[in-house]
Amino acid sequence: MNSFGQIFRLTSFGESHGKAIGGIIDGCPAGLEIDLDFIQNELNRRKPGQSKITTQRDESDQVEFLSGIFEGKTQGTPIAFQIRNKDQHSSDYNDLKDVFRPSHADYTYIQKYGTRDHRGGGRSSARETIARVVAGAVAKLLLKRVGVSIQAYVSRVGEIQLGKPYTELDLSQTESNIVRCPDVETANRMIARIEEAGRNHDTVGGVVTGVIQGVPAGWGEPVFNKLHADMGFAMLGINAVKGFEYGSGFDGTRLSGSEHNDVFIKTETGVRTKTNHSGGIQGGISNGEDIYFNVAFKPIATLLKEQNTVDRAENEVTINPKGRHDPCVLPRAVPIVESMAAIVLADHYLLNRINQL
Amino acid sequence: MNSFGQIFRLTSFGESHGKAIGGIIDGCPAGLEIDLDFIQNELNRRKPGQSKITTQRDESDQVEFLSGIFEGKTQGTPIAFQIRNKDQHSSDYNDLKDVFRPSHADYTYIQKYGTRDHRGGGRSSARETIARVVAGAVAKLLLKRVGVSIQAYVSRVGEIQLGKPYTELDLSQTESNIVRCPDVETANRMIARIEEAGRNHDTVGGVVTGVIQGVPAGWGEPVFNKLHADMGFAMLGINAVKGFEYGSGFDGTRLSGSEHNDVFIKTETGVRTKTNHSGGIQGGISNGEDIYFNVAFKPIATLLKEQNTVDRAENEVTINPKGRHDPCVLPRAVPIVESMAAIVLADHYLLNRINQL
Amino acid sequence: MNSFGQIFRLTSFGESHGKAIGGIIDGCPAGLEIDLDFIQNELNRRKPGQSKITTQRDESDQVEFLSGIFEGKTQGTPIAFQIRNKDQHSSDYNDLKDVFRPSHADYTYIQKYGTRDHRGGGRSSARETIARVVAGAVAKLLLKRVGVSIQAYVSRVGEIQLGKPYTELDLSQTESNIVRCPDVETANRMIARIEEAGRNHDTVGGVVTGVIQGVPAGWGEPVFNKLHADMGFAMLGINAVKGFEYGSGFDGTRLSGSEHNDVFIKTETGVRTKTNHSGGIQGGISNGEDIYFNVAFKPIATLLKEQNTVDRAENEVTINPKGRHDPCVLPRAVPIVESMAAIVLADHYLLNRINQL
Amino acid sequence: MNSFGQIFRLTSFGESHGKAIGGIIDGCPAGLEIDLDFIQNELNRRKPGQSKITTQRDESDQVEFLSGIFEGKTQGTPIAFQIRNKDQHSSDYNDLKDVFRPSHADYTYIQKYGTRDHRGGGRSSARETIARVVAGAVAKLLLKRVGVSIQAYVSRVGEIQLGKPYTELDLSQTESNIVRCPDVETANRMIARIEEAGRNHDTVGGVVTGVIQGVPAGWGEPVFNKLHADMGFAMLGINAVKGFEYGSGFDGTRLSGSEHNDVFIKTETGVRTKTNHSGGIQGGISNGEDIYFNVAFKPIATLLKEQNTVDRAENEVTINPKGRHDPCVLPRAVPIVESMAAIVLADHYLLNRINQL
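^ Those are the sequences you sent over. The predicted structure of the assembly is below.
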């Protein structure tokens, strides 16, 4: 289904080559100042054609708000927005109308719905994430008021791993390079790796790390809507994501309990933990420490090279797509990861208002 | 919040040392035969005291159904059930009333709710998963009718890794040993590792792998309720889980697209894929191949040794818990993982009934 | 489905002759003192056998709370409760197993579910409202803290109409008589009317009026969850209800706009309205004036006299039910109406916490 | 909140003088042919300026679909649409910016949200029902495939009552006159009554009756989402509605049970009821008979005459609105009532797919 969130709730619409992508944000409190430049800038961080390592498609992706904002502020009413689709070379896809591209959603959409808009992936296109970035930008504005910051960066491309934890990085450097890795030396190696993939008409995957600071203790709704469960749900709903881990994650399972436990200590600013294997969440509720997590992105399925497959009539066919596609989704995934994290947190911020008398 | 699922929907209740744990299953179709022995047996797979490597607490955990079943069949009405709590040494916890145990939910519950039932972890206790196992057992009965099987097993304990993929294992052997690893040799090493942890008054984490077979193409509800996103949400909501990956997962992000793509082929039984890095899900919808995933469990936070912490008055204190606790959650987590997977699938089975005219 | 409310949310379970009726209340804030005597007393107002004009079945209906309350206070965790069914003369219903009683749910349940628990109406029995009264009592305790009172009374039985608006009545007299009409003279005529129906082995319908005082301006969630829309939804979900109107209701549609409009005036206690045709709700949001509404209850379908009907095999048959049944549902409906109103208001009280920054 | 329906789900957006009114329909099955002319025609039935007894504002209200439809058919993906607002004399409302118009939502919106878009009523304007009519038209197309028809008509204007039940009327005549009453003689009297109100700068209320035919037995989801409870919820959410009754309604409460019960009979087309006081719904589930109901609309609050009130600073002021407003909402309410009924039924049609194995 196409709604996300309990209170701060995005409903998303749009196909890649339809008239528009957009959505409705319900449940945003009234009185929030909407900084349109900030929102457009967030969209620009996601858009294609922004650098030599992303697709050269030119999608300007201008957001138009249709409701919910009056005299620059939210009204407590639903905030609708659209981004018209342009630059659609829909006919590029004619040859693919009845073909099941490997590791795409062509086959499963046909099986589920009996029909599909084949142009540019239709609803299954990552172009849909535009709606998430707009809603995420609004959520960021809401969270900023309560001191919460959300930052993501590329921590691995293929085998090129950023070897330091976020605590040893200067996250303000993330936007200083086109791959969005805050360590310049690693960033350059990642860029080279992506360019290599592009030259090979191939693609490469990797990992985005998210870091959230300023969340007070108390956000999260056990037993099912634990903060990290909603966060993982949000991340796994992003196109191409294959895994999610938070805090110590998969590696932490190799530690013994005595190594893994985060001992509580008394500090000048109150109760804190000495270590943070918990990733800022205990029992599904934030404990005031930093929240951090990793999101795994598979290599993009669209290859600009020959591949065998079958078509809807079950004939064996060979495809060799043309066009302008990303060799690596990671750099453009950074604002999407941040946006979904922001929506989750905005929702939990509001949900937490009801827990005490 | 305490409900899970859109249509096949579990609402769970109960604290560890309250009167009962239980739940209500809404949305189960009418006419399903309820095999009470099967359900009780699933609960027995989860219960404490079942082997030398689990806690020796004796909790018999008898389920009583209160509604929704008549003459052995579901009625389309809500199915309520309870498991009364017994053998509660609540006074064991008196010393911990105002103490924040490291990496437990004590601190965050107090921060969120201003109060908590400290006895045995209260609502944050894994004892709550009893409700999930009962609902999961009902879901399994529903899914069995449509040919879906769900099997989980322990694939890693600490550093002891089961080195084979599920396709090279005989999953019928999972229940042949107390650690629930289908490879006997590895199982023995895992058991030794858990016993070692127990001797050290320490704990150890690991990984549970889930395998689902028989799901037809078409289950999953993009764009947010992708089948793997709901599956990850379900797993991350289980106590002690720190990560989730499906199909090729985190490792798959190291492959190039040409290595990772699953080529469609024509077979006697219709369209299939040659490889299955997709883990049976493409674009968030099942494609008819096996679904498989990994779930990371941290080492249990309760250690039977001295630890430093602070209490509610922010005094520094030392705790040294007594009692009967698991040194490793993995063996008992297997039926819980299966149960949550079953609930997710039952829900998507029903949701998929509405997609076509 | 069997859940009611967005935040303060009741999930109800139970069949008339099953093991228990009960429910789970999710979303009640932590820290609320639970007055068990008050809750049991609310249940007693609903129970059969409380007077000569209600059924003489003796159902003691003792509530047992299973979770969510610790040391007398709510914990922010789900509050589960059950009321065990007793005094079940299930065999009384054997003759009715395959018969469709006129204006009951026998036929429609079979058509919908293909099966039904025929004993005492099964899930369609008004005995299910026990769950609502318990949840409503908890909601009343929550609302009392913010100064909201909820009172209902019987304003018509058959043709016997209480001729005064609530503003001219002493609502503290409602419980002074067995029909729950605050005007003693009218009450006596109503009682006589119900006794007459009983003597005729017939039944009689009527109207319950609800009055809510102390709701501040601002509760209600347009455009769909208008306060009166949720209130009407709640009332129409009660067994035997055929209509709902609030404020000026159906009669108000006969007025002209200039007669009907509630003029705003300035008073010592702030902005008020001169009249209250709006029934305390404007644009779906409370305006601080009293909320009042009427609920129409049909005459109960169970008659202790011969009636023609057909059975499941489409044979024409004659039924002549025995047993102990109410000749009029109205007196016992009063606490049910209050309870559903309380649940709606508790929900909106909490929802309204999110509307402003 | 701004979403309606469980499966077939409309999320609505837009303020009266904002950029657009619109919505997203989620959960419509794939493969439904979309007749755009039919949908536009439904909108035209709702639009202002269509006759001498409605407002003379000229709002062309052209719907544009943005997603979810490909090659003329639904895709199972969200169907977004917008209707751009035109002809906005926003400055007409400058004088009313800080004034609380009697029986409007001005005061309550300010109390709830701390802000409001005052132009033309903002979000509280009945212009929002455009979104409902579009979604209702899609729902009608879906229901038509399964033989369900939905018809509404004006049955009372002020005191002018249509004296016959729907069974004695030719509903195909509803659209033959501008007041949408199928009895021509009564229609003429209603038109005269509305013209009289207009001449007096006053307004008049009334009743719309809805009739639904062709619903098979089995739709409706007890215990809370009874078919008539969802129907009443839908109707009470329409602007200016003060009451809802179905079947025998308020009047039926005057009957004795033996008069009111609908006896089952055997017919050539299966089990039917002899009478239909139940209004086609028993126990909250359709029984195959016609569903019929009444909806009470208050007289419109906007009067083109002088009225006293107060403003935001609590000054006593006099207002005397100018502009083009309806003297009676009833004729234009007919398609809105039908639309909400259609959305409710489409939702229950889909929900009912999950009740049996």
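The two ends of chain B are 33 Å apart (CA to CA). The longest strand of chain B covers residues 149-157.

Shout if you want it in another format.
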